[in-house]
Amino acid sequence: MRSFAVSASGCRVLRRPERQNASMKEMILPKRSVVFVLLTIMAVITFYPSLNGPWYIDDFPSIVENQNIKDFQAIKDYLFSQRGIVYLTFAVNYSLNGLDPFGYHVFNLFIHIINAFLVYVLLNRFLDRRGYVLLASAIFLLHPLQTQAVNYVVQRMTILAAFFMLLSILLYVEFFRVKVSENKAKNVIIYLFSILLAAIAIQCKENAAILPVLLLLCNVYFGNDESFYKKLKSVIPFCIFPALVAFKMLLLPLMSGSKTISSVASSRQISNSSEVTSLQYLNTQLQVIWLYVKLLFLPFGQKIDWAFPVVKNVNLKSILGGLGLLSIIGFSYAFRDKFKLISFGIFWFLIALAIESTFIPLDPVFEHRLYFPMVGFVVVLIGVVEKLISSKWYKPFSIMLVAFLAIVSFNRNLLWANPVEMMEDNAEKAPHAESVWVELSHRYLNANRVDDAHMALRKALEINPAYPLIYINLSNIYLRKGDYMGASRAAQQGLTYAPSEKKLLGNLSMSLTSLGQYPQSIAVLNKLLTIDPNNSQGHYLLASIFFLKRQWQEAVAHYQSAAQFLDDSSKLRDCYHFMGRALYNVGDVESSVQAFEKALALNPQDAESWLWYGSDYVHKG
């Protein structure tokens, strides 16, 4: 069997080791368990404030409003589609916790702790200094930039992809450790499992497509003396799934006539008026990468939404950014033997960022994109510490550094737990971003601060009156105030910019219904249900109109459809209550009784449902 021997630089290289006896393994295993417990304690203390944090931005369409995660049959149907495994975990959370964010946060934190431990195990294969490895895993765990990937629930796709990538890399390294042994079956199993985990990682998030390059990097820096060609050959099977993803998400759009590859961008819009080209995005990222570097060393001024402007033309900052990157790459290659850890870490960092920070147009800046590249950063950091900090000062320095990161992260987590303060902080740091003011208005509305919400929307309108989300919240404010004409005007104006926006259609329908304009409202709701046949609000509103018009059969049908998808227990109670009344009016007393029983199960103190429930039994005689 092969294992790692310590080189003169303090790193490990593959060689044939002497047999390890059982006592040595017994000594190592408790140490690993102690490390895991220590990492868990640090994580729980640091992230405890945000475990009861709310949903944010993309959490709503991906989780809260996603009907598929509420139906295991639907999840099974698209489990093997892109990111299906992530949505399966959301479905499990929903089955256990409903839409209470606490369980989702606990799951994210648990995976984050495991990832930090896997970083410890992986780097322990490369380094002979356990103290440095423990410091690296603690930095990975506690760095303030990691708070977004952990607390922003929808970014479970980021931490799950990292989890499977780390496992794949560990098995790939193990494959080379046993490669010369006679246990060929074990070699094949380890290798195939590594490929399988790599495929799962890509299925969780597309940035895992860069994994084959990282595997080659590990082999080149810490592998055996085989030729580069043999090392390259060993990662070729890992390229199959990235190639399939690239064909589906990049080549097919281009072959279909798209001028850019922006069709693979995230769900959030980069620009409201025009597409961003790949070259413009690259120009932007030449500046963004240095922003990331600054945040890694000085983690202050964090934002959930950076609203970083797209660089339309090449400018001096982009040129200097590009030259700086080339210089860093040149240094890393030229001094790869003298500064092995630093060189390896720099290459890991840049490679891990390559999918999201080069040519594929996405939102320019997100802190969670640094989650997996953080492994490279911590390797660079411990490489620098090893060179500059003497053994006498290493422990005090490590304790102070970990304590500093934990305190900054703890304070950041306090903000994540308070959505109003979080978005006020973001608006103060990015006052030019209409999306930030819209999100702040949403938080004000939830806190019943209607006037503050209106003020925030006025700020957003000054920045970009063509931003459709402004009109969702604006129509919500008018509905809250009972100004149905104002709500109708706001919703109609928003629909000029986003004709298929479901929330705007729903708000327009509510305002038209309140104004007594039933035919117009029905037309709007029919359009909404054409776009989204499972829209609970659409079915509920349509049922309510038919109820008011005494069209009982139609009302029952839509109440039944709405009940399948409603999550709000209060609305679901109302749904069953009015369904029972409609069923009573069509003479189906038995079904009416069942509907009122469901309403009373949701609210046993509901006197009105008890009255109708009793009427049903009187009618039955």
Could you please describe the fold and organization of this structure?
This protein is an all-alpha fold. 70% of the residues lie in helices and 1% in strands. It contains 29 helices and two strands. It has helices at residues 22-47, 59-64, 72-77, 84-97, 101-126, 130-142, 146-151, 156-177, 184-204, 211-222, 228-235, 240-255, 278-297, 316-334, 340-353, 374-388, 391-417, 419-429, 434-446, 450-463, 468-481, 484-497, 502-514, 518-531, 536-548, 552-565, 569-585, 589-602, 607-620; strands at 3-6, 12-15. A two-stranded antiparallel sheet has the order 1-2. A hairpin with a 5-residue loop joins strand 1 (3-6) and strand 2 (12-15). Helix 19 (434-446) runs parallel beside helix 21 (468-481). It is elongated. Mean pLDDT is 86; it is low at 1-6, 13-30 and 259-273.
Q: Main traits of this protein?
A:
single chain; 621 residues; mainly alpha; two-stranded antiparallel ribbon; 29 helices; 70% helix; 1% strand; elongated; disordered N terminus
Please write out the topology.
Layout: E1 3-6, E2 12-15, H1 22-47, H2 59-64, H3 72-77, H4 84-97, H5 101-126, H6 130-142, H7 146-151, H8 156-177, H9 184-204, H10 211-222, H11 228-235, H12 240-255, H13 278-297, H14 316-334, H15 340-353, H16 374-388, H17 391-417, H18 419-429, H19 434-446, H20 450-463, H21 468-481, H22 484-497, H23 502-514, H24 518-531, H25 536-548, H26 552-565, H27 569-585, H28 589-602, H29 607-620
Antiparallel strand pairs: 1-2
